[in-house]
Target: TF3C4 factor
Amino acid sequence: VGPKKEVAECKEKFASSVDPTVSQTFMLDRVFNPEGKSLPPMRGFKYSSWSPLGCDANGRCLLAALTMDNRLTIHTNLNRLQWVQLVDLTQIYGERLYEASYKLSKADTPRGELGDFSEFQRRHSMQTPVRMEWSGICTTQQVKHNNECRDVGSVLLAVLFENGNIAVWQFQLPFLGKESITSCNTIESGINSPSVLSWWEYEHNNRKMSGLIVGSAFGPVKILPVNLKAVKGYFTLRQPVVLWQEMDQLPVHSIKCIPLYHPYQKCSCSLVVAARGAYVFWCLLLISKAGLNVHNSHVTGLHSLPIVSMTADKQNGTVYTCSSDGKVRQLIPIFTDVALKFEHQLIKLSEVFGSVRTHGIAVSPCGAYLAVITTEGMTNGLHPVNKNYQVQFVTLKTFEEAAAQLLESSVQNLFRQVDLTDLVRWKILKDKHIPQFLQEALDKKIESCGSTYFWRFKLFLLRILYQSMQKAPSEVMWRPSHEDAKILISDSPGMGSTEDDQEEGTSKQASKQSLCDTGKGMDIDDTADDSLPQSSDIGGREPMEEKLLEIQAQIEAVEMHLTREHMKRVLGEVYLHTWITENTSIPTRGVCDFLMSDDGYDDRTARVLIGHILKKMNKQTFPEHCSLCKEILPFTDRKQAVCSNGHIWLRCFLTYQSCQSLVYRRCLLHDSIARHPTPEDPEWIKRLLQGPCTFCDSPVF
Model:
């Protein structure tokens, strides 16, 4: 808010002011006075917001976090389980305001000095964030040095401040830090005591419209236009649209915007829902020839206490609300000729979890799970002494619904539908077989369209089936062992042991195991159900081993099919981007020979492509060489390369190059490894290296 020395002097002056309206306001406001002397420290987070998928360097989400001391930062997951702060937006915005003398535009009249308490308050309120929300990914055009235009992805982050202003940050993707900030524009909303913010994104006749929905603690809700330059196919409103103007003192707690299709009007529409006290305010926005049509109303009789959290399933428009008494309401929108109505039903969490208090809910991306934050409720009319916060998961879909959604998915990416695949995984692990209807439907899909997505789905099912057939470990894998792992010298491989010693060791081990099971209080019946039936005779084990070998063979066959399909894609890129007898770092000849080595593999497309490539290569082989001994690395295995001296290098699954460095990337599920792009790599190789795992669609770290 000003130079450090001047700010310190002003704080001392306001704290010791004779006027109690100044001194008390200053001392009690944690924005001015974050240290708080005897007050508890400002630790923790006020709010957090996830960006859409595909915003960071790994193609995953960015996290915007607002701390209790009003600092807004952006974090990314660069390496597995390692979060890094990329930028501090509060500091950058403060520096911009300082350079502009705390004026939003040049036409603004100069304000008072920092020593004036009202000016001190104004400077704080204009940069104290209340909420922040990410927009969807949009496309901007960037002009290169040779005057060519290229499309660059960008994302917007809207930050709502205490004084009603909104800062709209534009970031170039992938977001890497301060250098990825394209612009920052400030909009004056004109709303007093703003409480919540949400993006309004609407698509009409292939034209994307956008705006910002702002709610007030006094009740009003309105949409503000957001003007952006150089954004492809982007439009906004001409002027603000007031959705609710009554100052009825019902604070707006949460706003969700859901895109829907109107079955009667035969066009897309936008449903805005807002939690106001114990009610849900809804507004249906529809663009017709007459202009923007607005229908709004309230849904009453949902909760006896104020709504503490609201979430929405954007795929089917279902809205979920909860109050602190452990009651969750499911609201299903049903269209009428003019607008819509809601059917709602009660979900009593007390029937599932017992007496609980709810603090927040969220629905998973594909609507498979509802996550609920709970603490213990009242017992015999008494509140609990301590609060233990837990995240509970409630399934919202059946296994059959999840499987059908995966088969008919337009996304065609397993990683982006991980909540649905989790329901399928749980069912197969429990029943130890793939349901017949799913197997038949998947085979039909593979025969009809042959998309690699369905092959990856088949691979996922086979792997889970193989996992369910294996013997369950006697110990719970994730639970740490508190026993000292000591080995008797007589038990070591170098020493002989008598039969008596072995029998004694076995009896000790058995007694120790029984004590462990009793002490841990595990549900032994559940563990026994999930494990295979223990059979003493060899004849009982053989069918199970044969079954495992059969599944293993199917897994290898599917993996080989996916590998060949990706090899064809890599060879296609090589053919399109190379000249005659040009040496690329990709082992092109090795990949061609590997594809043609199997006599049973007869793919006309692959044969034609390989023929064209071999013509281009003009009898050149361009083999890879071992960096340790300079010997040739033959392409005999898709996973690794071994030279004649026995040096083993892992192969990159995206380009099939040997990773001859100490640092490489790994798929999230540890399926495959990939090398890092190097500065000398051409653009098309860098593009290949940005792809997800060819087996499970997971990003690569």
Notes: The first strand starts at residue 45 and ends at 50.
